[in-house]
Design brief:
- This protein is α+β, with helices and mostly antiparallel strands and 175 residues long.
- The chain contains four helices and six strands, in the order ααββββββαα.
- It has a six-stranded mixed sheet.
- α1 packs antiparallel against α4.
């Protein structure tokens, strides 16, 4: 029973990590997503996608949204993290050559104003934090893998020992 408990946690972690690798729901063109119109939670157009930021796992980390620009002046760039927006193809503009997107935020304009401004300081802090998290994730994954190998080897050893004992008991009982 003890070796089963040793296997449970690493197996659970591995299954959760494997499941997230298959979570893709479709294909999106980064080129077409840049400059997409952005709408707040009330449906009002409030800006456009200025940049798409990727994490170490090559998934979208966040979007940089330019808001408040009038004739190319006075805009503010804010960072909106994945999970706070939805990307949808514009009605009637689907397909390989003419796809265009809209980004719908799950926040109001006032909530958007509270998002961090896209700046060198934000970039440096976020990049360092994500790198630290990435290294920790790799360390934990490697540790889980080693624990799984150790638990599996231990389980096989205990099964072999149990089988030998059972065989000896059967031999003793039949002789």
């Amino acid at each position: 029973m003890k070796y089963i408990q040793k296997l449970a946690l690493p197996a659970l972690i591995a299954s959760l990590m494997a499941g997230s690798a298959f979570a893709a729901e479709g294909l999106y063109s980064m080129d077409k997503l840049e400059d997409a119109d952005v709408f707040d939670s009330t449906g009002k157009e409030i800006g456009e996608v200025e940049n798409i930021l990727m994490g170490n796992g090559m998934s979208v980390h966040s979007l940089v949204i330019e808001t408040g620009e009038i004739l190319g002046l006075g805009g503010r760039e804010v960072v909106v993290h994945r999970g706070a927006f939805t990307v949808v193809p514009e009605s009637g503009k689907k397909g390989f050559t003419n796809v265009e997107y809209e980004v719908h935020l799950e926040m109001t304009q006032d909530q958007l104003k509270q998002q961090p401004e896209y700046s060198q300081d934000w970039w440096n802090q976020t990049s360092a934090s994500l790198q630290k998290t990435w290294q920790e994730t790799k360390r934990v994954s490697e540790s889980a893998w080693e624990n799984t190998k150790e638990a599996t080897a231990s389980a096989w050893y205990e099964i072999e020992e149990g089988a030998e004992e059972l065989g000896d008991d059967i031999d003793d009982a039949t002789n």
